[in-house]
Amino acid sequence: MKSGPRLLLALAISLSIHGMLWFAPEWDAAETPGVALRVKLVQQPSAVPTRDVAAPRRGAGGGSEKPGKRGTAKATSPSTDASAPVVADSEPAPPGPSGRLVISEPLYVDGEVDDLRAPADAISGGASGPVSQDVPIALPRSGRVSYVGTASFLNVTGLVSWQHDGAHYEARLGAGVLGATSSFDYVSSGRLVAQQVVTETARDNRRGKLSVAAIDNEAGVVRMERGGDVRERRITGLAVALSSLPQALASLDWSTEKISLFVVGDFWVEDAVVTDRGLENLQLPATSLEARRFQAKINNGKTIEIWLAPAWRNAPARIRYDDGAIVVDLKASEVEIDGVILMMKSRGEGE
What is the per-residue DSSP string for 252-265? Predict the structure, then answer.
């Protein structure tokens, strides 16, 4: 019969299509549907709360503004007539009477003394219990997390630390084979506006290559410099330095599953979509606990995952950074929040 070969051909094609669908790798599946809401810069609330009258502003412009919900698309867009912040140069000025923290003073690493850390008696209530994802908590005044982990096939140590005075903050992220900041040493500083982390300056040292960035979120401009090379990038939403990302995520309102913001790394700034993957049982070198995993997929192909532990007031319990060439995976080995050690490094762990 003439229809025989045609029938066999149709059957073969059908089996091939079904086979490809059956054996297709899982990572090719479509991303969970959902719109990533753009994070905008929130407005500084006025001293006297009002509903219909905006706080006085310099120059002509805009009507009544009401601070939006932190970290959601409802946040008020930055006004062009607002006074722009002072953007630090590559050589920051000394601290003024406001007590602003200076980026030129590195945050503490293991064994170093930091006079800016809050004393233990200043803690109110100590470490809090688990917190719902859509209820932001105040960023602790200071924190230090030491890590052990790997960079591809090498054993490394790492560090995350931060401190703030209620108005300005500093943050640090590092990793290395010979020390917690020997290969990567990223430092950033900025302001806290209604608990939102607003990065203003970043200084990133990646294997001896130093780059600095001045981030003007109000004007929507990021200016980067490395050696004699200068780049400038326009942004349309909140930009956060890579070293400030753990604190920024801990301070956001996570009533939505996905957000988008700009991430500033070592001589690059790219848009990123951050997805809340939910609570997971995280196994660490000395303990296990629940942590909420946030996955940031950056437009340049890099991916950073951060696990925030509610039991540690949303301190980062694990950080995994894939920059396309090397994968750094850090797990917490020691945690100190507001001067209180919540987890002590056990004997035998890498220094």
Answer: S--SSSEEEEEEEE
Helix (H, G, I), strand (E, B) or coil at 5: helix
Of all helices (H) and strands (E), which one includes residue 82? none
Give the single-character DSSP code of 314: T
pTM of the complete model: 0.67
Residue 68 has pLDDT above 70, yes or no: no
Query: How confident is the model over 208-261, as pLDDT tens digits?
Result: 999 999 999 999 999 999 999 999 999 999 999 999 999 999 998 878 889 999
Answer whether 160's CB lies under 8 Å from 173's CB: yes
Q: What is the mean pLDDT of residues 124-153?
A: 69
85, pLDDT greater than 60: no
Q: Which strand (E) or helix (H) includes residue 46? A: none
H/E stretch holding 339 reads none
User: What is the CB neighbour count within 10 angstroms for residue 96?
Assistant: 9
Higher pLDDT residue, 116 or 211?
Answer: 211
- Long-range contacts, 123-129 (Cβ 8 Å, 24+): 123/338, 123/339, 123/340, 126/340, 127/311, 127/312, 127/313, 127/337, 127/340, 127/342, 128/310, 128/313, 129/310, 129/311
Token readout for 262 is 């700009």
Each residue of 189-212: pLDDT tens digit?
999 998 899 999 999 999 899 999
How far is residue 83's CA from residue 69's CA, in Å, rounded to a whole number?
A: 22
Report how far residue 195's alpha carbon sits from residue 286's, in angstroms, rounded to the nearest whole number.
32
B/e letters for 205-236, b = 16+ CB within 10 Å, e = fewer, are bbeeeebbbbbbbeebbbebbbeeeeeebebe
Residue 63 per-residue DSSP state? -
At a CB cut-off of 8 Å and minimum separation 6, what does 267 contact?
Answer: 204, 209, 211, 224, 226, 229, 231
Beta strands, E only, the chain: 37-38, 142-151, 154-164, 168-176, 184-193, 196-206, 209-216, 221-226, 229-234, 239-241, 258-265, 268-283, 288-298, 303-309, 315-322, 327-337, 340-343
